[in-house]
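Format notes (please read before filing issues)

Several people have asked whether sequences and structure tokens are stored in separate files. They are not. Every record keeps both together, in the order shown below: the sequence lines, then the token lines. Line labels are part of the format and must not be stripped during preprocessing.
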Amino acid sequence: MKKIFLEIGSSVGLVIVFIIGLVIINTKFLANAAYGNVALLLVFVIIASFIGFKLAEIPD
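Then the structure lines:
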């Protein structure tokens, strides 16, 4: 599998998971939705960075 397909697939997958997470947080946890959004964004950035570092190790 080519590296470009892994990059695009992981990016699209992460954005979909992020949107689903936002919907769940904003519908289930109304009182703490702001904290949940910040926590979800932090987790998103950490996971995206980890995937980026792992993709950088893969040769073209």
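For reference, the curators noted about this record: Residues 25 and 47 are 18 Å apart (CA to CA). The chain has a mean pLDDT of 92.
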